[in-house]
Amino acid sequence: MAFDIEMIQKVYANFATRIEAARKATGKPLTLTEKILYAHLTEGNASKALQRGKDYVDFAPDRVAMQDATAQMALLQFMQAGRKKVAVPSTVHCDHLIQAEVGANADLSKAKTQNKEVYDFLASVSNKYGIGFWKPGAGIIHQVVLENYAFPGCMMIGTDSHTVNAGGLGSIAIGVVAPMPVM
């Protein structure tokens, strides 16, 4: 589901209270990044100033976005967790396995044939666990995430190095990726 207004309203409902608590805990004005980080503490309102490199902190992101090449392993691991549904709104975007060679239509058709097993797996797992699924040809993850899921104050985790594009709308968007082998 794109643009979840209820989730966004929930984030903003707690934002001012959490920022005020963080200001009191730190005793200083906060940067936008600090505001977003403190607003997404799993524990709720900040009770102390956090020190970079010293404190371990758990965050509650608003969204997880995965691309097809790395989502396979992420979802296989998720399936082992025994959960019935994802706890955080999540999406899979099928764009990375499409190789540009001839032209958009031919390349998309070839990818759908070559990667059918992967796409079927991702669609099936997405359907089973409540994950949004963007099929091949539905858009490039970089732009889809920016246009449909990013919002000021959002915290997003993605399996694509371009997840950080969502920062253009005032989000903290972190790409957590493993290096891809050179083919």
Describe what you observe in this structure.
The protein has 183 residues and is α/β, with parallel strands linked by helices. The protein has 2 domains: 1-59, no CATH class; 63-175, Aconitase, domain 3 (2-Layer Sandwich). The protein is 41% helix and 11% strand. It is built from 6 helices and 5 strands; from the N terminus they run ααβαβααβαββ. The chain has a 5-stranded parallel sheet. Helix 1 (5-26) packs across helix 2 (32-39) and helix 3 packs across helix 5. The protein is elongated. The two termini are 34 Å apart. The mean pLDDT is 92.
Q: Please identify which CATH superfamily of the largest domain we are dealing with.
A: Aconitase, domain 3
Estimate nothing, just give the exact number of structural domains: 2
Radius of gyration equals: 18 Å
Q: Which series of helices and strands comes N to C?
A: HHEHEHHEHEE
Question: Which CATH class of the largest domain is shown?
Answer: Alpha Beta
Contiguous uncertain segments of 5+ residues:
none
Structural class: alpha/beta
What name does the CATH topology of the largest domain carry?
Aconitase, domain 3
CATH architectural category of the largest domain: 2-Layer Sandwich
Mean pLDDT: 92
The spatial strand order of the largest sheet comes to 3-2-1-4-5
The profile of the biggest β sheet is:
5 strands, parallel
Helix content: 40-55%
